[in-house]
Design brief:
Length: about 475
């Protein structure tokens, strides 16, 4: 009897031992598994909220191969714009030999720059415009050059003459576009460096302003290698600011300057205290955007549009398709074969002036298309306009400036490649009513995740700093004041 009972008892004991061991294992494995799953969940949640950035990388744009040895000269060298009798004699000779084609009757600026008005501009240029005097005007601010990634970068650096006790000076990098130059900022600089003296504030926000020339524009050396785009420019300008001793700074731009400074914010958000732009690049494609456009004209409140957005955006086809097509013919040339058209522009100052100044007409105010003089002198003086043209002429930089379109659009035809990288730095947007396209705040929020200020400017167009310096300065100061209070 006991012989039968003993194996059964032994099996029962072993079964209990196994059950105990299993429960002990479970006591360890279940919490461990839970901890592992929880850790993975935390990692996933953190990775979702990790800010994506554009890789900074590196580059070489000098002539030939990058030197294998030796450190790049990082010195900052004073620079002065100069001219000569030979330069002026050559210009005058070319102006005197210009040929013109009579405009069609009643054409105004619908066919481009009206040649009747062009004759007047050229006559002023030849007989009254004083380039030597304008060179003195250009040299009133300190100019410098420094070598970055193999090419010489030109910039002006203007510091305030007086800073109230206890006030911090904010470094501000301002970037121009095409067909502009660093000269666009000459009227806004004193408003930012000496705001109290111009009635803008009590001096609580004061700037030192750095205005570089985009490589290939004006007095910045042109890249010698293919592929120089806004990403490369953003990286170079970060290096410039770092070389000047700034760890954090504000950035501002319109046109290409908007794209470059946006890339700077996407690349090193820890260095950009705030981004202010007066032109916003957004992708209007996709179902969400299509619905917003379709409903916006009828129930704008449903898709987040304001009455002012509706006024500036609709009729949509007219303002966002037809007007844009009319004003972007130059873009298709420059984004495909810039050197071909550039050859003629680089050889003819009259052709160059017509090509550049036509943009200062209709990009300033679309209605100027109907004026025989393009409305140019209602917003600018001929001295101002021709000084900008001369910066392109004396540096032979029109071709290299046009190539910038080729380098960017060949990689990213819709200029939306980096839209998937959000902009998380504090952002201010100044929406001027005559800008080529209007971007409502609700659309801008798709890319710009931290909009601090969005201002419907009362007047002004594409060349904001050149045309409405006080309005733009006020908005920049308002934006920076809010960021500093965060």
């Amino acid at each position: 009897m006991w012989q039968e009972f003993l194996p059964n008892a032994w099996e029962s004991i072993l079964s209990r031992i196994r059950s105990f061991e299993c429960s002990q294992k479970n006591a360890v494995l279940v919490p461990a598994a839970a901890l592992g799953v929880g850790g993975m969940l935390v990692f996933w949640m953190r990775s979702r909220h990790k800010i994506k950035t554009i890789e900074m990388g590196d580059g070489w744009w000098g002539s030939g191969e990058r030197p294998l040895k030796g450190k790049e000269d990082e010195s900052i060298r004073p620079f002065k714009i100069e001219t000569s009798d030979k330069e002026m004699e050559d210009l005058h000779r070319r102006l005197e030999q210009a040929r013109y084609t009579p405009p069609l009757e009643g054409a105004a600026f619908h066919y481009g720059f009206n040649s009747n008005y062009l004759r007047k501009v050229v006559a002023y240029w030849r007989n009254q415009f004083d380039w030597r005097k304008q060179v003195e005007v250009l040299n009133k601010y300190p100019h410098f050059r420094t070598t970055i990634e193999g090419i010489d970068i030109h910039f002006i650096h203007v510091k305030p003459s007086y800073v109230p006790h206890g006030r911090a000076v904010q470094p501000l990098l301002m970037v121009h576009g095409w067909p502009g130059s660093f000269y666009e900022f000459y009227k806004i600089i004193p408003l930012l460096t000496e705001p109290a003296g111009h009635g803008l504030n009590e001096g609580d926000v004061v700037f030192e302003v750095i205005c570089p020339s985009i490589p290939g524009y004006g007095f910045s050396e042109a890249p010698h290698q293919k592929g120089f785009d806004t990403i490369a420019t953003a990286r170079i300008f970060h290096k410039l600011m770092n070389r000047l001793g700034f760890k954090q700074y504000y950035v501002q731009g319109g046109d290409w300057g908007s794209r470059i400074t946006t890339n700077m914010a996407q690349m090193l958000p820890q260095s950009v205290k705030g981004l202010h732009v007066n032109l916003v690049f957004v992708n209007k494609r996709g179902l969400r955007s299509m619905i917003s456009v379709m409903l916006g004209a009828y129930v704008p409140w449903l898709v987040g549009l304001t009455r002012e957005d509706v006024r500036r955006t609709y009729p949509f086809m007219q303002k966002n398709i037809y007007d844009l097509l009319r004003e972007s013919g130059y873009l298709h040339i420059q984004a495909t074969k810039p050197d071909t058209a550039g050859c003629g522009l680089n050889d003819s100052p009259v052709g160059l002036a017509a090509y550049i100044l036509e943009k200062f007409s209709t990009w300033t105010d679309k209605s100027f298309l109907h004026k025989d003089d393009g409305g140019l002198e209602s917003k600018y003086s001929l001295d101002e306009l021709l000084t900008n043209v001369m910066i392109y002429w004396v540096t032979s930089s029109i071709v290299s400036s046009m190539r910038f379109y080729k380098e960017n659009f060949s990689k990213d035809p819709n200029l939306t490649l980096h839209a998937r990288v959000g902009v998380y730095v504090p952002t201010g947007i100044a929406a001027f009513p005559q800008e080529i396209v209007h971007t409502p705040r609700v659309w801008a929020k798709q890319n710009f995740k931290n909009i601090i200020t969005y201002t419907y400017m009362p007047r002004g167009g594409h060349f904001a700093a050149f045309e409405e310096p006080k309005l733009l300065a006020q908005d920049i100061i308002h934006f920076v004041r809010k960021v500093e209070q965060l």
